[in-house]
Amino acid sequence: MSDFRTPLSRARGLGSAKHGVSTWLFERVSSITLVPIVLWAVFSGLKLASSDYEAARVWMQSPVNAVLTLLLIIVGIWHMHVGLRVVIEDYISKPLSRAALLLLNMFVCGLSGALAVFSILKVALSVGGLDGGAF
Amino acid sequence: MSQGKPGAAKARPLSPHLQVWRWHITMWGSILNRATGVALYVGALILAGWAVALASGQDSYIAYTGMLGTPLGLLVMLGLTFSLYYHLAAGVRHLFWDAGKGFDPKFSDMTGVAAIGFAVVATLATWAIAFMTGAL
After folding, report:
1. Which residues have CB under 8 Å from A100's CB, separation 6+?
2. In percent, how much of chain B has pLDDT > 70?
3. Do residue A35 and residue B126 have CB atoms under 8 angstroms apart?
């Protein structure tokens, strides 16, 4: 197959990075994964909204609830990281602002995801009450 | 290259922009999908905050859920419920497009209306259930 790129574009080195397909695929796979998880999350949210702290803690100690909440957080935050990345790349063209926002997106997703995952594991794996906890 | 007068480049026709574009339902659908996605970004941070509050003990949990129960908190939760259902429906619509189906303009208009309709109805149903189960 012949090369369709112009000499100028080749000289600038701004061609395909050859790994865009994995990002595209991840967007689709995470979308499909999130459909059932999100419906479960609405159902659970309704249940949790009418219960108190103790009931919520016991709820999180069920393996199914803890794992599905972890998956909701991990897949959801990854999906939104990729999504907001596209929004930033579409609307922000100044190189410095774009780089700063892309970094901020990554840090916010990484920090909130890590905090949520640790918190869920702490509640799910602890025996008894949590008063006087680590936070 | 054309040899126009100096300054002629300014008068060249521009591509249609939002001000001169006839608004149609698929356009609303696309913009709304992106807007609800950004709203859900905030929603995910609220969810992460909920998990941290739960792990921090009873006092933090009561303070956090109390904040969500204020009129402003409930308004945010209502918006997030709609965003979640709309983004879900629009996402399914996108998956069909990825499979090469649903591009016919009439059908596409129909699924656009259906996605918004589903989000409104599902939001009302969810909040009706929340009201009946004593979550509010």
Report:
1. none
2. 90
3. no
